[in-house]
Design brief:
Elements lengths: L14 H22 L1 E3 L5 E3 L3 H7 L2 H31 L5 H11 L6 H11 L6 H8 L10 H29 L3 H9 L4 H29 L3 H6 L11 H11 L3 H40 L1
Antiparallel strand pairs: 1-2
Helix pairs in contact: 1-12, 2-12, 3-7, 3-9, 7-9, 9-12, 11-12
Length: 297
Amino acid sequence: MNNKIYNNRAWWLILPMLLLVAFSAIIPLMTVVNYSVQDVFDANTRFFTGVEWFQATLNDPALQAALVRQFAFSLTVLAIEVPLGIGIALLMPKKGWQASAILILVTMPLLIPWNVVGSIWQIFTRGDIGLMGWGLRELGYGYNITRSAVDAWGTIILMDVWHWTPLIALLCYSGLRSIPDAYYQAARIDRASRWAVFRYIQMPKLTNVLVIGILLRFMHSFMIYAEPFVLTGGGPGNSTTFLSQSLTTMAIGQQDLGPSAAFSLIYFLIILLVCWVFYTAIMNLQKDKQQDKGGVS
């Protein structure tokens, strides 16, 4: 029989945060929901439209193309940054002044604001004063992000990998540091290979931090705005116009409050759905591995 007594007064400690979330997230969200079912002309003139704006958004070819580009970008950077971040974390020293120095160097890209990152890479890729643009042209490659969609895409992906891979590396590094030395000592006694150590000791410990890293990186990459907007402005043409830029143009540039509200809700639901799929898949994979270990033992 469980005789534990729980003190429910502890819930009062999170009440300020609940109030903050209510005023900063829930109330604005309800405002967006209200706009999404109305045709707003001015502060006093509006008409109920039901799901008309949702249907128009889902059937808009330009937004469908932006959604495809957004998924392609997010999945590409995840496929690069997660393995690369794990590899960097495995190579980082664990003790001594070298560990502190490497941590500082790895963290530096994360400290740069998003709009500044776009400006840095815009200068970096210029053919006249930019090291990358000048170097590629000297090698005979006609590099130009304003004319070539391939160059623009490659540069945006490279910029995002440079900026955000350190986040994955730091999360994985913290997971590796939490592994007791006794595990590695047992592996050395058993003469386990480096792959076996990674698969059976390190990777299980990295699962939880990878869940956090993958969800954070997907959400941010799916909402990316400042970096590609500053670097390419969505061009050439619409080749690097992502959902966030389309939403900003609709809401601020065109002042279409109803369609932009419906668009933002669909945007929000897509992010929630994909994050739930990622989380469920990773957790189920971890459970299957634990069951396999239990069956073997």
